[in-house]
Amino acid sequence: MEVNELLNCKNCGAILTASENQTIKCDYCGTIYHPKPQTDHTISSTEITTEGVQHQLENVENSDANETLQSDNFPTDKQNTNLGCSIALIASVVIMMVIFIAKIIGSEQKTTYSGSIAIDTSMLNTQPQPVELSETAQASLKKLAAIIVDKKLFKKLIKDSSNITTESAVQATYFKDKNSIVGKPVTGLYAYINCYDITGCNIYFGCQHINKKPLGLQSLTFVINGKRLLYKPDFATDSLQHWINEYSEETIYDDKISILLKLVTADKVIVRFNGNKGHDQIILPKDQQHALKRQLQFYKGLLLGYAKE
Fold it and tell me: Rounded distance, CA 222 to CA 261, Å?
């Protein structure tokens, strides 16, 4: 297929008519032109330029489209990655701050609670101060440091004790343990509390020996865990249910409370009754030993002022 083109003569400008692959001669001035053959793959500069412009236009349109998408708040993958890293970093910082603050608050709470506990414990362990105690009674209270008593136990001791109130010039109330041998035909040891409305309370320690014949008692010997202790009070004689009762009672203070403490804390106590007419001995029964201890607890509770609360 032939392609005809209109060409102008470069010398005279006349219009030339030629066929593809033919020599062209100007009819006006006689100039001869030899056209260059072109292959099917040859692309004119005009076409290249046009394609370049179209490609640039396409790039511009794509760029505008991207800008439009970005302006509509649709983040790209890179932006999503950066945003995720930022959020993770901020979350880590917040968590670290929360842990740090929690440690500080926990430390402060621990200090506060431990202080409260210390204060509460000291209040619980603080016993009421004795009121208007004589120097002798204060010394007795110090001797009774090993005897444990609290308000609850003191109330129980009062409930379990038998008491007698006597009306005279001075009112007095006697407290004795429920297992006391006072008034019973039983040989052994005992104690009781005597409270006066004016002078306060005292503890009495006593012993009695019941027999058909008197021993003429002069002293007692306590064998406490193998060690001997001589005790020499004043004795009297009385009759008790057709028996002869040789007995002794005296108020004990700090100097003799130590003897009573040894009796109630010993594992084994032997009591020997020494008289000018004979001798006798017993092993102190546990019920008498426990009764003596309860009376010491009762007495200490009185000194601590539990009866006034």
Answer: 13
